[in-house]
Structure formats: C-alpha cells, structure tokens
Design a protein that fits this description.
It is a single chain. With 326 residues, the protein is α/β, with parallel strands linked by helices. Helices cover 51% and strands 18% of the residues. It contains 13 helices and ten strands. The strands form two sheets. Strands 4, 5, 6, 7, 8, 9 and 10 form a seven-stranded mixed beta sheet that branches. A three-stranded parallel beta sheet has the order 2-1-3. The protein is globular, with a radius of gyration of 22 Å. The N and C termini lie far apart (80 Å).
Length: 326
C-alpha cells in the first residue's frame, strides 16, 4: 500500500508539473541599450506575442548584447540556441544582396521603405536569407544614420579625411566611408563607448536612438546630420529552429512580428525629434551636412555594388524607381 501511495503521489506531481514544463522559452537577443528603438520594438513584440501564446510558449527578451553582439547572435540563430535576433547592417555580411540598404541615400522615407519591403524584400531578399538559414519574420527599423565625432563638424565628405570612424559589421559601410576619406573600422556596438572615450576611435555613425541609448553624447563633441543611410532592422529566426516550432506558435509569432511594425515606425518618428533635442542639451554641437556633396561622392559605391553582387544593380534600380514621388 505504501509503495502504491508513493507511486500515486509521484504520478500526481508529474501531472501537475506538466503544464509548467510545456511552456517553451523563446529567447530574443538584440544589441540595443535601455530606451533604444530596438528595446521598445522587441518588448512590444514580446508583449503582443505572449498575450496570444498563453501557455504554449513565452518570448523572453535579452537586450544590451547580453546574448552576444550581432555576429554572435546570427551564429546562435543558426545553431538554434536562441530563437530570435534583430539584425540590421550585419545582414549584408550574411546575404550579399541585403547590402543594397548600405547604399547612401537609397531610402527616402518610411513610405518609400514600405514599397521596397513589399516589392523587393519579400519577393527577393527574404528567400535569399532563407537559403542561408535565416527566416525573416518582419521588417522593422534601425533608422537614419548620422555621424558623431570629436574632431570637427562634418559638412562635406572631405571633412572625414583621416577620421577614425567606428562602423558596424558590413563591408559596404566600410567601402563607403573609405571613399569619403575616413578610416573606418568595424566594431561591435557594445565596445564603441569605451573606444570613443579613450580616443581609439574619433567617431561613429548611428541612428539617434542608438546614439542616445548608448550614451555617446557623453563622449562626443559633434553630431552632423548626414542621414547618409537608412537601415531597416529585421526580426529573424533560424530556419531549422523555426521549422521545429508548432505551427500554431509560428502563426502567432509571425502575425505579432508583422503587426509590431506600425508601432516601430510610430516610435521611431517620435524619437527622432525628442532625442536630437536631448543630445543637443547634453552639449553636443549639431550641424547640417551638405547632402548633395555626399550623394555626388557616393557614385562609386553604387557602381561597385552593382558589379560585385548578382542582381545588385537590378535590385537597387527597382528600389530607386519605387521612390518616385515619395
């Protein structure tokens, strides 16, 4: 009887524990700091997804490069040790054609980006990513990028001559700034503050949300409003891990990812005005750049991209055509 009682108790305990064990934890890693657009976006997605997932699964967000920098996160997606990441520029290191978004002044505004998403990203780029082991769930935003530095205001490309500039992992960003005359070096976002503080780097370029949330205004004297590149961000999963998730869970996650885009764009537009004022208030000198001079200096980047990347010229031409009237 005693043995039967113990066995029954164990069975009961097991049945009670089953629902808790059944809930999968879906890890979402990103490099954005507190208050960044990445943090706001990832948290909003998690909130929306978790409300629908119930006991099936739970999205847990890890920001500030807790699970690694962009390169490590992309590797972890392939290995299946995390479920989601939020790459931006680094996608061009994984899939060459994503380098089209490294082309200076390609994307005019968010309406233009929506057209590119519909007619270029989903029909062409997303299938390319899938072949490399990445499932793109939705297109979000990193933003329009501007240059900060400790040497001088940047008005024209020649003002960048010799400036040591941190750039993200993406060969076209390196090429672009080499053409402008700077000395660009790829570096993980988590390492940039100390590099600027110690003078290892003179400057960097990022959207305002990354500049402010990374506290670069504390270690930089100038911000030049170049708006030289608009970088989308993509919520991405590894294809093998994605395929292993139950179909109903995948449906909820994909819908939540796409539905979050409106929130992302709304927050991005709001942050642009708020953050520039805060960066200026921190003592950083703000100047407008001569965008026509930068556009004129950018022709060689477009030429190289068209020559080096299969269908690169065609994709860029299509994106430019979609901007007519935007």
């Amino acid at each position: 009887m005693r043995k039967l009682f113990v066995a029954g108790a164990l069975l009961l305990a097991g049945s009670l524990a089953a629902p808790a064990q059944a809930q999968m934890e879906l890890k979402f890693g990103h490099v954005g700091g507190p208050g960044s657009l990445f943090e706001l976006s990832a948290n909003e997605f998690a909130k929306r997804a978790n409300a629908k997932l119930g006991d099936k699964a739970k999205v847990v967000v890890f920001g500030s490069s807790q699970l690694g920098g962009d390169k490590e996160l992309m590797q972890k997606l392939k290995l299946g040790t995390i479920e989601f990441a939020l790459p931006s520029t680094v996608m061009s290191s994984e899939v060459d054609a994503f380098g089209m978004f490294e082309m200076p002044y390609l994307v005019k505004n968010r309406d233009h980006m929506k057209k590119i998403e519909a007619e270029v990203v989903w029909p062409s780029l997303a299938p390319m990513a899938e072949k490399k082991g990445y499932k793109v769930l939705a297109v979000w935003e990193n933003g329009f990028r501007h240059i900060t530095n400790n040497v001088k205001p940047i008005v024209k490309p020649e003002d960048l001559n010799g400036i040591k500039l941190r750039v993200p992992q993406g060969k076209w960003r390196v090429k672009m700034f080499q053409i402008y005359g700077a000395n660009p070096s790829p570096m993980a976002l988590s390492e940039v503050f100390v590099a600027l503080q110690t003078g290892v780097m003179d400057g960097q370029e990022n959207p305002l949300t990354q500049i402010y949330s990374s506290k670069f205004q504390e270690v930089q004297k100038f911000i030049s409003m170049t708006g030289h590149v608009y970088t989308p961000a993509y919520i991405v999963s590894g294809t093998r891990k994605w395929a292993s998730l139950p179909e109903d869970v995948r449906t909820i996650l994909e819908a939540a990812a796409k539905d979050t885009q409106g929130y992302v764009y709304e927050q991005a537009a709001k942050l642009e005005d708020d953050l520039l004022a805060k960066i200026k208030a921190a003592g950083v000198q703000v100047n407008e750049a001569d965008k026509d001079a930068f556009i004129a200096a950018s022709k060689d980047v477009y030429t190289e991209f068209g020559q080096d990347v299969p269908d690169g010229a065609k994709l860029v031409e299509k994106a430019i055509a979609l901007g007519a009237g935007s």
